[in-house]
Design a protein that fits this description.
It contains 18 helices and 14 strands. The chain is α/β, with parallel strands linked by helices and about 425 residues long. α5 packs parallel to α6 and α9 packs across α11. β10, α14 and β11 form a beta-alpha-beta unit. The termini are far apart. It has two domains: about 200 residues, NAD(P)-binding Rossmann-like Domain (Rossmann fold); about 230 residues, NAD(P)-binding Rossmann-like Domain (Rossmann fold). The chain is globular, with a radius of gyration of 23 Å.
């Protein structure tokens, strides 16, 4: 099949590469000339584990191409995926739909033959109706269906998730569109559940899913706070919770709060939509407030120790909002760093992939280390904020030699606490009462 994809970000690019690997002819469209030039020259514009190999292979075999031209990108396409951003409004936090509507306006004149317009972006309920109206007004003769096709790719695992989906949701009442989408995703049948639902139901599923997962993360973080006071161990508690198949073990890892391009944006958008419909989503609202407070609390806990030191230096491992990606949007790590920078501290920051994006946000306020051992040089405190696999193999004995202090705030449970304690570190872990407190 011929596929056009509008948008080459963390959704559009992995999806395009994945569809090309399945044998489709894929053309990705973007308005940013430098990005398209980089991609056409074989240079990836995002980091995603496993993406590079597939990107190179499908560029070489001709199944994956990039263009600035909407006309070239969607000409004779069977399916056009809209995968542009829906950033939150700075004031209301509702999803900003200008890029979605602009894409609909721009693609409409170039539709030829029957085309399925699939909205891959996370959009408010009713967006499909509005996109359909825009296209019909712009091109009354067009033969098309607008469907909702929510993405469930986890950043850092997008390639794995593309080829191993736990479900594929398609929102449409059109039998014709259903046939096209069933053909497109036939390689995943019969092992993957494919749900055909109403378009507005599909749009809701994405928000409801992300809001639920955000609540689950916030719940385990609150339980971690309880464990610290009560003398329980959150890792043992989470194991017991996760063993209940009604709950499950996923998203029960305590941390400094959720972040990224989805959970903060989507929980806020979900809450905004509910208020607009006159519905109270008390759990979602409480999750948003609690997650915002948590990042500040984490910074305050670190500063409570740092202020005891003259000219404190803090080494920080992790800038991305999670391991496996270079995405720093709404990163708890960067929020914590910003709070710490309100105090007289020096910060030495290292992340395996996200330093360039971190620099765009933090500027010259911190020192950007070449590696983890450079970051900990003469540091009084070590703070772990992102769960990179690379950090798990660090030599704690070498870190001890290079650090000036002995305090570690391991907010991701990366290090072996017994080893760290034996080496003389004062190890602080979330959800476990510290004897040093």
């Amino acid at each position: 099949m011929k596929i056009g994809i509008i948008g080459t970000g963390y959704v559009g690019l992995p999806t395009g590469v994945g569809l090309a690997e399945l044998g489709n002819e894929v053309v990705c469209i973007d308005q940013i000339e430098s990005k398209i030039n980089d991609l056409n020259n074989g240079k990836l514009t995002i980091f995603e584990d496993g993406l590079e190999e597939l990107f190179i292979r499908n560029r070489q075999n001709g199944r994956l191409n990039f263009t600035l031209s909407m006309e070239k990108g969607i000409h004779d396409a069977d399916v056009v995926l809209i995968a542009v951003g829906t950033p939150p409004d700075p004031e209301t936090k509702k999803a900003d739909m200008k890029y979605i509507y602009a894409a609909a306006q721009e693609l409409a004149p170039f539709l030829n033959g029957y085309t399925v317009i699939a909205i891959k972006s996370t959009v408010p309920v009713g967006t499909g109706d509005q996109v359909e109206e825009i296209i019909r007004q712009k091109n009354p003769e067009a033969d098309f269906d607008v469907i909702s096709l929510p993405e469930f790719l986890r950043e850092g695992f997008a390639i794995h998730d593309f080829f191993n989906p736990d479900r594929i949701v398609v929102g449409t009442n059109s039998a014709r569109a259903q046939d096209v989408m069933a053909k497109l995703y036939a390689p995943f049948a019969p092992k993957t559940k494919m749900l055909f639902v109403k378009r507005r139901s599909s749009e809701t599923i994405k928000y409801a899913s992300n809001a639920f997962l955000a609540m689950k993360i916030h719940y385990i973080n609150e339980m971690a706070d309880f464990c610290e006071k009560a003398g329980a161990d959150i890792y043992e508690v989470a194991q017991g919770l996760g063993a209940d198949d009604r709950i499950g073990p996923k998203f029960l890892r305590t941390g400094p709060g959720y972040g990224g391009s989805c959970f903060p944006k989507d929980t806020n958008a979900m809450a905004y939509m509910a208020r607009a419909f006159g519905v109270e989503l008390s759990l979602v609202e409480a999750t948003i407030r609690g997650n915002d407070k948590r990042k500040q609390l984490m910074a305050e806990n670190v500063w409570a120790e740092a202020q005891k030191i003259s000219n404190p230096q803090i080494a920080i491992l992790g800038a991305a909002f999670k391991g496996g990606t270079d995405d720093c949007r709404e990163s708890p790590a960067l929020d914590i760093i910003k709070h710490l920078l309100e105090h007289p501290v020096q910060i030495r920051l290292y992340d395996p992939k996200a330093l360039n994006n971190a620099r765009k946000i933090l500027g010259d306020a911190v020192y950007y280390a070449q590696d983890a051992y450079d970051a900990v040089q003469k540091a009084d405190i070590l703070l772990v904020l992102t769960e990179w696999e690379e950090f798990k193999s660090l030599d704690l004995a070498q870190i001890k030699q290079q650090m000036k202090g002995r305090l570690i705030f391991d907010m991701r449970g990366i290090f072996n606490p017994q080893e760290a304690t034996q080496l003389g570190f004062d190890m602080r872990r979330l959800g476990i009462k510290s004897t040093a407190l």
